[in-house]
Amino acid sequence: MQISHAKTSPLPRSQQLPLDLLPAFEAAARHLSFTEAGAELSLSQSAVSRQIQQLEAALGAQLFERRHRALALTEAGRIMQRAVGDSLERLRDAAARVRGASPVRRVAITSTPGFASLWLIPRLVRFTAAHPKVDVRISATLDILDLERSDIDVAVRLVPSSQGEGPLLFEEQVQPMCSPLLLRDPARPLRRPEDLAHHTLLAIDMQHHGDALTADWEPWLQVMGLPGVRMAGAVRFNHYTDAVAAAVAGQGVVIGRLPLLADLVKEGKLVAPLRGRAFSRRGYFVVPAPHAERNADAQAFVQWLLAEAEQAKAGGRSSSPPTAARPPRRA
After folding, report:
1. Do 142 and 233 belong together in one domain?
2. Domain-terminating residue out of 76, 101, 126
3. Are 166 and 158 in contact (CB under 8 A)?
4. What is the per-residue pLDDT across 40-94, written as a single tens digit (0 to 9) for each?
5. In Å, how far are 10, 94, 263, 312 from 245, measured between CA atoms?
6. pLDDT, tens only, 160-218
7. E-assigned strands of 148-242?
8. Are residues 80 and 158 in the same domain?
9. 158/90 same-domain check
10. Looking at residue 176, which CATH number applies to its domain?
């Protein structure tokens, strides 16, 4: 037995099936209505009718019986409906498999709500513009998530500097901050630490952990040589971002965490009325998950984070006033 490998000659153009007419036929055969088929395909009834007539002319067979306000498939129409329906279904299945075979490009990040809202999200547009096909997912939480179990690629964690793992983005500095509106009240000056007694403390309620409302102020108080802080009252929040929003609205004084609030300071929404910054002995560290080594987009995100942090630090060095001496770092 001989097997011929000769190529089949293409059909003459006059005998080729006009594939662009098949969607109109399939819809009309399913609805048995040129009007409903046109509505589905965003075509007029007359346009669908013309396409069916062209298909019938190409096939040399009538596909529909035109009855009074009704359509019915002929035997030729039923044969074509089965063939066209099966072919379109197989094409849809093939397209679904092809789409599913394409790997989803995704980077999942976890960080504190304050870092996500105040520092990361305002800059994220630069990463997404450079990587438009990457799906970025952010889990903003105070919980320390297991990177493997949570399917997280990169964590940005605020921890004591002596306990940090992974590349350091930046160390945290603290300084009292408030809205410029608060400084316009001559009855309540805010030029010296003692003047805090006339203002409201905007604090994070961490008392369920045994911390005082002014726990975040301790590094600054030590640098300033102050035994404590006395204020007229306090408003407590569960999240740092809420306390910052209240400060921007002129409702009190918050301990400003830098560089998280650096953009708000540059925009003039917050000011530091009392000189002197203090290092909090905490830092923001980038912790990639072990599986992130196989994710090129996660690696690109880590490098982008580090570059953004360097740019932010360079801007801070060029524009910020001298700060108080930094306490010695623990070993």
Report:
1. yes
2. 101
3. no
4. 899 999 999 999 999 999 999 999 998 877 888 999 999 998 888 778 877 876 7
5. 71, 51, 13, 22
6. 999 988 999 999 999 999 999 898 888 888 999 999 999 999 988 765 455 677 788 88
7. 154-160, 168-177, 200-204, 233-237
8. no
9. no
10. 3.40.190.290
